[in-house]
Amino acid sequence: MKIKRQKQARSALNIYKHIFKFHEPYLVLADGTFCQAALKAKIQIKDHISKYLNTTVKCCTTRCVLAELELLGNEMHGAKMVAQRFQLRSCSHRNSPVPAAECLKSLIKDHESGRYFIATQDMALTKIAKTIPGVPVLYVFQSHIVLDKPSRATENHIKAVSKEKLSTSEAEKKSLKLMKEDANIIHGERTVKQGRKRKRAKGPNPLSCKKKKKTVSNKKTS
Ligand SMILES: [Zn+2]
Predict the structure, then answer these.
(1) Distance between CA atoms of residues 178 and 176, nearest Å
(2) Centre of ligand 1 from the C-alpha of residue 128, in Å
(3) Ligand 1 centroid, distance to 101 Cα (angstroms)
(4) What is the pLDDT of residues 121-177, one digit of tens each?
(5) Who surrounds ion ligand 1 at CB < 5 A?
(6) Which GO terms describe its cellular component (predicted)?
(7) How many CB atoms are located within 10 Å of the residue 50 CB?
(8) Of 41, 70, 91, 206, which has the fewest CB atoms closer than 10 Å, so is most exposed?
(9) Mind listing the pLDDT tens digit for each residue in 82-94?
């Protein structure tokens, strides 16, 4: 079961890598709900994801996430301690923090794909992340972190990209065919010209000229 889960996750990761140009270390943008769930499941977030995806990751969060956890008080104190160790990504709410979900939403929308993995247990935020192509979602399930399968928006984007590639290759084939035809015409002209040149170069047979001279001299002597 574990191997199957890892295989699925790694093939999804390949999609993000090749189609959406994600690169290591992958940035995992976590909110308080994710930190809380990981804490409850006794999961070391960074190590767990690194092993699970067989890659290097950098966990990060925002000031808005920390501010929200601060507001929630004791109940989320542990999650705040976890999130505080993460790298802070700058958001546009420095002077007036907004709810964590709104903040993370703005980050993934601003950077579109190829930037962040979203790590959350918040269903509303997950739903939003899934409407943007190329935003991988991580969540805690039982005692594991799971990389969600690519969303419909992501799949549609992949289909559109492959269609585009296909039509490009068809166009390339057509232009290649035209180029070949052009080359044949040029090549054909060249051979015709070369053939003519050769004929001209041959000219009159020099041996026949020699013979004629001999016969003339013979006649004179006789
Ligand atoms: Zn913010």
Answers:
(1) 5
(2) 16
(3) 9
(4) 999 999 999 999 999 999 999 999 999 999 999 999 999 988 877 776 666 777 667
(5) 62, 64, 91, 93, 103
(6) nucleolus; small-subunit processome
(7) 16
(8) 206
(9) 999 999 999 999 8
Give the pLDDT confidence score for residue 162 in this predicted structure: 81
Take residue 88 and report the two structure tokens written for it: 């802070």
Dihedral of the alpha carbons of 139, 151, 90, 33, in degrees to the nearest 10 = -20
Q: Is there a contact between 61 and 28 (Cβ–Cβ < 8 Å)?
A: no
d(CA 196, CA 16): 61
What's the CA gap between 61 and 87, in Å, rounded? Answer: 6
To which residue do tokens 């962040």 refer?
116
Whole-number Å distance, alpha carbon 104 to ligand 1 midpoint, is 7
Which residue reads 């889960």 in tokens? 5
Residue 27 CA to ligand 1 center (angstroms) comes to: 16
The CA-based angle 13-19-25, given to 5 degrees, is 50
Between 219 and 31, where is the model more confident?
31
Q: How many CB atoms lie within 10 A of CB 116?
A: 23
Cα-to-centroid distance, 70 and ligand 1 (Å): 14
Give the domain 2-149 fold: Rossmann fold (3.40.50)
Dist CA 163 CA 171 (whole Å): 12
